[in-house]
Design a protein that fits this description.
The complex is a heterodimer of chains A (544) and B (291).
Chain A (H helix, E strand, L loop, with lengths): L3 H19 L5 H7 L4 H29 L4 E2 L2 E2 L3 H26 L2 H77 L5 H34 L3 H27 L4 H21 L3 H22 L9 H32 L1 H14 L4 H13 L9 H8 L10 H27 L3 H9 L4 H39 L4 H11 L2 H32 L9
Helix pairs in contact in A: 2-3, 4-7, 4-18, 5-6, 5-7, 8-9, 10-11, 10-14, 10-16, 10-17, 12-14, 12-16, 14-16, 16-17, 16-18, 17-18
Chain B lengths: L2 H4 L2 E10 L7 E11 L4 E5 L6 H9 L6 E6 L2 E2 L7 E4 L11 H12 L5 H14 L15 H13 L5 E5 L7 H18 L2 E6 L2 H7 L2 E5 L7 E6 L8 H6 L1 H46 L1
Parallel strand pairs in B: 3-8, 3-9, 6-7, 7-8
Antiparallel strand pairs in B: 1-2, 1-4, 4-5, 9-10
Helix pairs in contact in B: 3-4, 3-5, 4-5
Classes of the chains: A mainly alpha (544), B alpha/beta (291).
Chain lengths: 544, 291
């Protein structure tokens, strides 16, 4: 239908524009192909700029998968891609379980009893599964044992034989030495002969020890690496057992650990204390009863406002890191843009600030972190009661992120390191305004405010945003280091904690966190590109 | 006509000198004198690089005056201001504003006490006048060079300036658009009676647009060479002007003057070169003697 044509076209060009603005120009030929525009050309483009890169990345993954298990470290082998994917699944499951437990903790009334029944049936099923699996393990182990024995037997035999022959040799040499010593005493042989023989003996012993050690290692390797069937079953069993433990915990949170239940119990205690108070006649008894009523009421209040003690899961760390970097970035922008504008407008201000900028710009974030830790820490002698943190924890979304002094000084460090690119770029943008535009301002005799808002800021916005984009990138990098060092909750601390754990699972977690950091950094950059493009005018869009 | 109106703009001994660290200051323009009547259009013509634009930017206040004075309507003025509106060679529009907003920027400065609706009306009126009624909400990036220059003209005239300064306003446009815009500007000037100074290097444009043509000598030390009255009555029709039998005489005398300037320049360059070679050879002999 001809009337359909323009509509399809407008959708197409809308999509293409969206792709262009968001910086995903790679998908341009896909959209064009979908609308049937020059399929030959688009396919060529897709092949060159999408399929080839995908193949390249795939090759890199294969290389990783090949190299990783071949490098042994203190904390096991280097994890391969599948293990890192496993880390994602494990971390996500942990997060989901925390969610479930929190929901259970807060559940009340009818819904709670329903949930208990649900969880109990689930638990029963899982326990049964675990039990059958546990029973199969010895069976598999037994069936596998013969294999192990078979592969072990020749090695063991060799070891025994070696040991025997070594023993014989040692004995023979001992006899020989004894005889030689005797002949030295009888002056039939020289001292040197005896010494040479002794040295020979020591070398032979050492050699024998080493060959024995090598075979022992072979035996250990066979014992340590049970066949895959057994290993997999054991892993499966442990994961089910894990779930059983989780379900038991859930039941705990639904029954005795449940907030509603706890409150009810405490209220009952208050009621009984009240009754006691009513019944009491002696002054001392009355006083005691009244005291227990007060205590009970206080307890009820305390429990009612109790929150579920969440463990810090990876997604929580991600949100906290994002929030911290946002605070730091906003701080940096709030300082950099006005100061940068002043620098760009006035050469004296620029001359005053140049020494500060040049000295402080190269300072490492670690140094800033330590300085801020001391300086900012002094503002919060009692963090629990400080109005800032009390206010932050009362906010709906931010309350859950546990704002604390460590977060404040991490954010300050981010701001300190991120302020420079934005400042320098803003100053550059302001000082490089088109002379024609300034002439317009002169002829119109625009006041300072009008000049700022109508000419200076609009014309330097593209460069300001280019600076902010660099700042955000720097800030995100700095933040991870700052969190690791200051143990402020976040991705940095997650990585640091995993490093301290030092097992093969945590190694996979670290690499997984590395990808999370990278992907988030990528998206932050994309957001800044979109903002930068939206403030750029015409074709003079600055792409720095 | 009162005395102020007869001598509405008075440019006296206008000089622009740039400091030369190794000798005497270089005087690009020297002792430029001119008097404009109220409502008169004077074009300044000369070879490129002779200092026409320097004169205009000094009058606009965008370029510092080294010596001399500028009097507008009996008052000495210095520095830039909206009383002397400028249309530059490039449109100089702010690319982040629509044409209406670009015009509004100046109108807000000149009519600070008007209401928003009044100001908008003024802007719309002048944009209408330059033929941009349909493009008020377009950004400069969406318009052609000619349309952008129309916005520039509207912005300048909406300031209700005492003096309008046009610095080769059509220099970057193709000849058809240029003729269009010449007519647009002339029509507005005939209606608004704004005293105008046009810088141009186009002889036909100078004759067609102005009441008097001021020819400048070549720099350095450029100054007024000759001022000729253009005898055609205003408002003018292009065809009438072209058909007039004096037109070509006129054109011829202008071109003759400019060619003479060119020859003078060549002679001057030759003389300077000779002098330079002579001094350098003298210096050379001096150097050999000292060795």
């Amino acid at each position: 239908m001809p009337s359909q044509e323009p509509k399809a076209d407008s959708i197409k060009y809308g999509l293409l524009k969206f792709i262009d603005i968001t910086g995903f120009k790679v998908f341009d030929p896909v959209v064009r192909l979908c609308f049937g525009e020059e399929p030959q050309k688009q396919l060529g483009q897709i092949g060159r700029f999408m399929i080839v890169p995908v193949i390249f990345v795939f090759c890199c993954m294969m290389l990783w998968a090949y190299v990783a298990p071949r490098h042994k470290t203190k904390s096991g082998e280097v994890p391969d891609p599948t293990q890192v994917w496993g880390a994602l699944v494990v971390n996500d499951t942990l997060h989901k379980r925390e969610n479930e437990k929190e929901a259970d903790f807060l559940l009340t009334g009818e819904a709670r009893t329903k949930k208990i029944a649900e969880v109990e049936t689930l638990l029963k099923a899982k326990e049964a599964e675990a039990k059958t699996l546990k029973e199969t393990i010895p069976e598999i182990a037994a069936s596998v044992q013969s294999d192990i024995d078979a592969s072990l037997a020749p090695v063991q035999k060799k070891y025994d034989e070696l040991k025997a022959t070594h023993k014989q040799e040692v004995d023979a040499r001992k006899e020989k030495i004894k005889a030689l010593a005797q002949s030295v005493a009888n002056n039939e042989a020289s001292n040197e002969q005896l010494i040479a023989l002794l040295r020979e003996d020591s070398v032979a012993k050492k050699e024998a020890r080493e060959t024995q050690k090598a075979i022992k290692e072979q035996i250990a390797a066979i014992n340590d690496n049970p066949p895959k069937v057994l290993k997999n079953t054991q892993l499966q069993y442990s994961s089910i057992e894990n779930e059983v433990q989780h379900l038991k915990k859930r039941l705990d949170y639904l029954n005795s650990g449940n907030r509603g239940q706890k409150v009810e119990k405490a209220e009952q205690a208050v009621v009984s204390a009240q009754e006691k108070l009513d019944a009491a006649e002696e002054p001392a008894a009355i006083l005691a009863a009244a005291k227990s009523v007060v205590k009970g009421k206080e307890k009820v209040e305390r429990i009612t406002s109790q929150k579920y003690p969440r463990r810090a899961t990876i997604w929580f760390q991600v949100w906290r890191s994002l929030f911290t970097v946002f605070i730091g970035f906003v701080l940096a922008a709030a300082i950099a843009i006005p100061v940068g504008i002043m620098c760009g407008l006035n050469k004296v201000v620029m001359a005053c600030l140049t020494p500060l900028i040049s000295v402080f710009k190269p300072v490492s974030p670690v140094v800033w972190l330590l300085i801020f830790q001391i300086v900012v820490g002094a503002f919060f002698p009692n963090p629990e009661t400080h109005p800032l943190f009390v206010f932050a924890s009362s906010l709906p979304w931010i309350g859950g992120l546990k704002v604390n002094p460590a977060m404040v000084y991490s954010a300050c460090t981010v701001a300190m390191c991120a302020v420079w690119p934005a400042l320098v770029n803003t100053a550059l943008g302001v000082s490089s305004i088109d002379q024609d535009h300034l002439n317009v301002a002169k002829v119109l005799k625009l006041g300072l405010w009008a000049r700022l808002t109508k000419i200076i800021i609009p014309s330097s916005l593209p460069l300001i945003f280019a600076g902010l984009r660099i700042s955000l990138g720097v800030g995100w990098m700095v933040l991870i280091a700052a969190e690791a060092l200051s143990s402020s909750d976040g991705l940095g601390k997650y990585v640091w904690d995993e490093y301290q754990n030092g097992s093969s699972q945590t190694f996979a977690n670290i690499i997984f966190a590395c990808f999370v950091v990278g992907i988030i950094g990528f998206f932050l950059d994309r957001i800044m590109i979109i903002l930068q493009r939206s403030v750029s005018f015409g074709d003079g869009a600055a792409t720095v | 006509m009162s005395k102020n109106e007869r001598r509405y703009v008075e440019i006296a001994n206008l000089t622009k000198a740039y400091p030369n660290p190794f000798g005497k200051d270089i005087e690009v323009v020297k002792d430029f004198n001119m008097i404009l009547r109220k409502g008169e259009i004077v074009s300044v013509i000369g070879h490129s690089g002779c200092g026409k634009s320097t004169v205009l930017t000094m009058v606009a206040g965008l370029n510092e005056i080294s010596s001399g004075s500028l009097v507008v309507d009996g008052r000495e003025v210095s520095g830039p201001g909206p009383d002397r509106a400028v249309v530059f060679q490039s449109p100089c529009l702010l690319p982040w504003m629509t044409s209406l907003e670009n015009v509004m920027l100046g109108v807000k400065q000149v009519f600070p006490h008007g209401t928003k609706a009044e100001r908008k009306q003024i802007c719309e009126y002048y944009l209408n006048l330059v033929g941009l009624a349909d493009s008020m909400h377009k950004y400069p990036g969406e318009m052609s060079g000619g349309m952008q220059q129309r916005v520039g003209i509207a912005r300048a005239i909406a300031l209700k300036p005492q003096v309008l300064l046009l610095d080769e306003p059509f220099g970057r446009l193709d000849s058809l658009t240029r003729m269009d815009l010449q007519d647009v500007v002339l029509e507005i000037l005939d209606r608004e009676k704004i005293t105008t100074m046009v810088i141009t290097h186009d002889v036909d444009e100078a004759i067609y647009m102005s009441d008097r043509v001021c020819m400048m000598t070549n720099g350095p030390e450029a100054t007024v060479g000759q001022i000729i009255d253009v005898p055609f009555a205003r408002p003018r029709l292009r065809q009438d002007v072209l058909d007039d039998r004096h037109y070509y005489d006129f054109r011829f005398s202008l071109i003759a003057f400019l060619e003479k300037q060119e020859h003078a320049k060549e002679a001057h360059v030759k003389a300077v070169k000779e002098r330079l070679t002579r001094t350098s050879s003298e210096a050379g002999t001096a150097a050999t003697v000292s060795v």
